[in-house]
Amino acid sequence: MVNMIELLKDEFNFYVVTSDTDYTETQPYPGIEPNKWVKLEEYLEVCYLSQDRTSRSTVLKILKETDYDVVYINGLFSTYFSIMPLWCFSSKSRKIIVNPRGMAAPSAIGNKAIRKRFYLKLACMFGKYKNVLFHTSSPIESNQVKCIVGNATKLYEVENVPRVSFKSKNDRNVSKVKGSLKLITVARVSGEKNILYGLKRLKSVQGKVDYSIFGPLNELDYWQSCQEVIQQLPSNIRVQYKGALPYENIREELAKHHVMYLPTKGENYGHAIVEALCECVPVLISDQTIWTEKVNASEAFAALSLSDKALWQNALQKLVDLDGDGYSEMLSRLEQVNQALFNLEALKVRYKAMFNDAS
Fold first, then answer.
1. Domain 2-162+344-358: what homologous superfamily?
2. Does residue 226 contact residue 193 with C-beta atoms inside 8 Å?
3. How many Cβ atoms are within 10 Å of 174's Cβ, its own excluded?
4. To which H or E segment does residue 104 belong?
5. Residues 80, 18, 51, CA angle at the centre, nearest 5°?
6. Which helix (H) or strand (E) holds 95?
């Protein structure tokens, strides 16, 4: 959302309603004024709702009293920020765009599946998605939405907006020596992100590996399984869980590591992957994202099949064995393709068309 607003700041004014507390956290964001409109920029006002004021009556009041042309709903299953805005208006009275944000994926619906499938069936039965414009970020996500609401649904497919800045290899301040590797994962700790799989692939790697995991603990049982594997890893493999990472600090942490590591079971976009590429950090990811062909074509570094465990182990060993010159060559290849990967002006034209089409 932040990146989209930044890209379109000269075209539209945005009013954002959100929680004053990050997902899975209990403490509100520091230094904010909750439950009122706060003007952060000329083009942006935000209302941060405190937990005690996040209610049906508050959301309805905001929706009815605020002047806007298009309702842009981020996600499918948040009670107050996704479901209620959709049900508050008929799509004939307000223009509505829904961005599933990966929540239409089978792996996402599979978590609390009975509740989610019942809600989706109910929403379709009452025609709540009938005239909605779905903003999807890939052909994969478009097909997932069609499986939920039918082939007749209206889709606008345009990839998410990366942060509008790119680093070169000269901006990187991390040295690489043969026999040592610094890995980083920035993701929710959940089965969908497949961190357990990634930990198991480290068992037979020779050389020193420092692996930092950043992200909220979405599934505590899953994290317990991860911890059991961590305890069994040899002494040359050091894994540290470092908690949730504020958005503004993601690139800073990525830049301290050699490779971003994410054997995900599926991403509708993959924001952490994009942040790494823009920071000129190579990625070792699964082939279950929209970046597979581009990453493998650029050799920066690899998108691999999850069915081939030996391939992952060999890739990790190759990265450990890479010396400074080899790593520098890898960064040069990544730097050359970055600007071609993310054409921001073309994205801006497509986003303007999407909002104008909705309005």
1. Glycogen Phosphorylase B; (3.40.50.2000)
2. no
3. 12
4. none
5. 65
6. strand 95-99
- Give the 3-state DSSP-derived string for 253-308, with helices as H, strands as E and coil as C: HHCCCCEEEECCCCCCCCHHHHHHHHCCCCEEEECCCCCHHHHHHHCCEEEECCCC
Question: What are 150-209's pLDDT values in tens digits?
Answer: 887 899 999 888 876 677 777 787 899 999 999 999 999 999 999 999 999 999 999 999
Inter-axis angle of helices 324-341 and 271-278, nearest 10? 110
At 263, list the tokens. 């054997």
pLDDT: which is higher, 51 or 229? 229
Residue 300 structure tokens: 């920066």
Say how far apart CA 304 and CA 314 lie, in whole Å: 11
**Domain residue spans of the chain:** 2-162+344-358, 169-341
Asked, colleague to colleague, whether 2-162+344-358 and 169-341 share their fold, the answer is: yes
Angle made by CA atoms 217, 277, 305, in degrees to the nearest 5: 70
- What would the mean pLDDT of 26-54 be, rounded to a whole number? 92
Amino acid at 145: V
CATH number for 169-341 (one of 3.40.50.620, 3.10.450.50, 3.30.70.260, 3.40.50.2000): it is 3.40.50.2000
Q: How far is CA 330 from CA 48, 274, 321, 342, in A?
A: 42, 17, 13, 19
Return the higher-pLDDT residue of 333 and 167. 333
Contacts of 247 (CB under 8 A, 6+ apart): 2
CA gap 98, 143 in Å, rounded: 15
Distance of alpha carbon 126 from alpha carbon 109, whole angstroms = 20
The three-state secondary structure class of 171 is helix
pTM: 0.74
